[in-house]
Design brief:
This protein has 242 residues and is mostly beta strands. 3% of the residues lie in helices and 45% in strands. The chain has one helix and 13 strands.
Length: 242
């Protein structure tokens, strides 16, 4: 009898390992967390944080929504009730000795909603007013609102922004009414208020929602946002749909 000498060799199945997925591109990150990017700016996303860097160096603050806007912004379309929130991490104020095409040197960073000739904006406004006044200029940092609607426009100041603190802004639409709230720590919020409760802004059911950054100056400015959320009410399932 022939005997075979040697070691037994076990043959194990070879498992195929999938290659790791490539990291998301900049457009993919922006689309995932913020929506569509529009306007004259470079958009840079890092995780869930987004920075807008202006590229023209010229004033860009016209909100003629009926035309294609060049103001840097993100866009998502929503119908009915919603709540949109953002944190302004950093927004460059205007240069104190800069030039402007308006009555003040200013930059504005915040939230907007817009549709069919109506718009509403809630923002951090940083401004040196009265540029023809020889008196020393003092930077003003305020939370302000602006509205444009078919029969007119309205604006107002809500709160002086606290130095050294981040600004959180929120716009809520419920049952057709638009209210706003703000916070300087992301936890303690102001009571939601309707600043234009006596004005029919004629905001349609379907609107564009997002962040924006505008300015009246001849400078290259930037703004950084994070903690952006856009939520809509969950429609409860009926008994018949279970």
């Amino acid at each position: 009898m022939t005997r075979w000498a040697g070691a037994w060799v076990a043959f194990l199945p070879v498992m195929a390992v999938a290659a790791p997925a490539p990291p998301p591109t900049q457009p993919e990150l922006i689309a995932k967390y913020w929506g569509r990017a529009e306007g004259d700016a470079e958009f840079h996303a890092e995780g869930r944080q987004l920075t807008l860097r202006l590229t023209s160096g010229k004033p860009n603050h016209s909100f003629s929504w009926a035309e294609k806007t060049t103001i840097p912004r993100t866009v998502q379309t929503v119908r009915g009730d919603f709540e949109v929130t953002v944190r302004i991490v950093d927004a460059l104020p205007p240069l104190q000795e800069g030039r402007s095409d308006s009555h003040s040197l200013e930059t504005n960073a915040g939230l907007y909603i817009q549709g069919q000739g109506s718009s509403f904006r809630f923002q951090l406004r940083q401004a040196y007013p009265h540029i023809n006044n020889p008196a020393p200029r003092t930077l003003q940092r305020t939370l302000t609102i602006n509205a444009n609607y078919p029969r007119g426009a309205a604006s107002g100041s809500i709160k002086q922004a606290e130095d050294g603190k981040s600004v959180y802004l929120r716009i809520i639409r419920k049952d057709g009414a638009v209210t706003i709230a703000y916070s300087f720590d992301g936890e303690k919020w102001s009571t939601p208020t309707n600043p234009f409760r006596n004005v029919d802004m004629a905001i349609p059911d379907e609107v564009a929602v997002g962040i924006f950054f505008s300015h009246s100056t001849y400078q290259f400015a930037h703004a950084t946002f994070d903690h952006f959320t856009l939520t809509t009410p969950t429609v409860p399932k009926s008994e018949n749909s279970k």
